[in-house]
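pasting for the record
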Amino acid sequence: MTIANNRMRIAGLCPANTTENRLYLVPASTQIDAVLRIVNLDTTSQTYRLAHTATDVAATTADYLAYNMEILAGDTHEWSIHANAAETIRVLSSTASKICYHLSGNKKTW
């Protein structure tokens, strides 16, 4: 079995709503080892939620890595994300089009 290991931009999203959104669903036969950068483009503090679910479903209490985490105006937060096939990274922003998410790193496929 050959394993391909590629460093790359995996996903990006700047949601135009304030509901939970899927940032990335890890494809079959794939694993990611990445950094998620969250950027507040607004001039005021905002909040976000970050969840890592076992399947492509809405987040439950046990899935949250961050819940209503404050991010200052113009600030960036970084999270290490390790996820396997079928797992999903989900996000929710307190304001539309001002909180952006950028996932990059290693994407391993076999």
